[in-house]
Write a structure and sequence with these properties.
There is one protein chain. With 421 residues, the chain is of the alpha/beta class. Helix content is 62%, strand content 8%. It is built from 18 helices and 7 strands. The protein has helices at residues 25-39, 56-66, 79-91, 102-106, 131-150, 159-163, 174-182, 190-202, 206-219, 226-239, 244-255, 266-283, 286-303, 306-325, 330-355, 366-379, 383-394, 400-420, and strands spanning 4-8, 13-16, 21-24, 43-46, 69-73, 96-101, 119-122. A 5-stranded parallel sheet has the order 4-1-5-6-7, sandwiched between helices. Helix 10 (226-239) packs parallel to helix 12 (266-283) and helix 16 (366-379) packs antiparallel against helix 17 (383-394). 39% of the residues are buried.
Amino acid sequence: MKKTCFVIIGYGIKTDFANGRDINLDKTFNNIIKPVFEALNIECFRSSDLKQTGVIDVKMYEHIYKADFVVADISTLNANAIYELGIRHALRPNTTIVISEDDLLKEKRIPFDINHVAIHAYEHYGKGIDYEEVVRFKKHLKELVTHILNNPNEKTDSPVYTFIPNLTPPSFTEEEYEELIENIDASESVSSLVEAAEKEKNSKNYEVAIKLLNEALENTYNKHDVFIIQRLALNTYKSEIPDKISSLFKALEILQTLNPEETTNPETLGLLGAINKRLFEALDTTDYLNKSLHYYERGYYVKQDYYNGINTAYLYITKAVLDKKNESDDLTIYASYGQAIKIWKELIHKWEKIVSTEEFKKRGDQVWIYLTLAEAYLGISNTEKEQKYIDLALHLPESDFAIHSYNEQKEKLQIFINEMT
């Protein structure tokens, strides 16, 4: 009978709110975990790969209970992942493997109840995982799984069975295992629909992507799935269907389900900032400028990232110029301009340190970081440093789109800077 591995892990890009880092869990699952188990002829899947019929919770708990292996990724300390890991530890004495992004261990943020469990660390660089790290951790994981296969009862990895050693582990019939495998069908899964939608989005087939995402949302047990709703809002406003303004308002309506006024999710806040910024540019209504600034700034202070940061600074100088045209008092005008300068300097201070590290060379977002630094230096009128980072960006492959976006914003920003100096 073919063995199974159920993986406790989300899908898409998740944010670790303690340090603001983005972690692409699809990369972890597809590039590391799944290939290892498939190479060992073990069926490997996650809850989003299960057939979307009946009550998904029943199937999920059944797989946590009966799967030969469970791999639990606790990188973002997601409450659901921790809870599901606890259930597995309560039900099975061994064959549970806990993994985590390395920063969680370095920062000593492992919850007390699992800080004595063996946790196998891997490392993300930006939103992806470096090829060498993929090779290293796959080798480590394969050796670990192979050892467990050859020595199935050698070690108890469950704290419950360790501290209550007289518990009797469960056993299952072949029929129960067969039924378990029949529930797996990645071709009909939520994750496959989301992945297909992402490909359509990258090809600018936004209408097709929207259809796929709506199907995924309909099929998932969580009708308020944050990641799917975020992607749905993004594709909606980019589609400009039936027209630009209508699509922006529709995207805002979609994001209302994520509680905009209370959320601390930086991706949601960034989307709200982007939509309101576009509404301001299209309708020239100050209310949308203020809303955009409100959301971008909240996202920046939650995550300290360059995307929300550079947009916050841009909107502050936009606000300063508008206040100047409206003959507001000097204190109001230069308070906004001063905030823009402050954020530009913060971005330079943080991200220049990062670009000087070895880890930076492995990031997939180098071009955007270089152009963020270029824009920040433009903001504080250091054109020599601005050009330095533009040149670095130009030497990267496939930088045309990023450079085009930078030049569009630079043109507007230069006008604002001239107005203020």
